[in-house]
Amino acid sequence: VQLVESGGGSVQIGGSLRLSCTASGYDFSRYCMGWFRQAPGKEREEVARISRDGRTTYADSVQGRFTISKDNAKNTLYLQMSSLKPGDTGVYYCAADFNTCYRRTYRPNEYRYWGRGTQVTVSS
Question: How wide is the angle at C-alpha 41 spanned by C-alphas 15 and 107, nearest 5°?
């Protein structure tokens, strides 16, 4: 199993970025997929999740600004981020698990598969 994130970078406050996560080695369409982020000195937090049937869940801090989506034909997960704030800065990880679809939140240790992350920096 391999998850590879891309699309991170530096952006000004109010800007947008789209992250991608390309998956291989498992049946992508049957798994629950999440995006996490980790800021320096802080715990890794779940920011968005999409279930195998396309239901989406967002952290309150990103609701209305971030959109998670997936393309099963391309085995790719996306995170469209807009109206970015300095507090969105961190390393963004995609994660996959068969069982993390429908609760309100999940802890990082409940996801089985992880990418290595991509850095997002929001500044003025």
Answer: 85
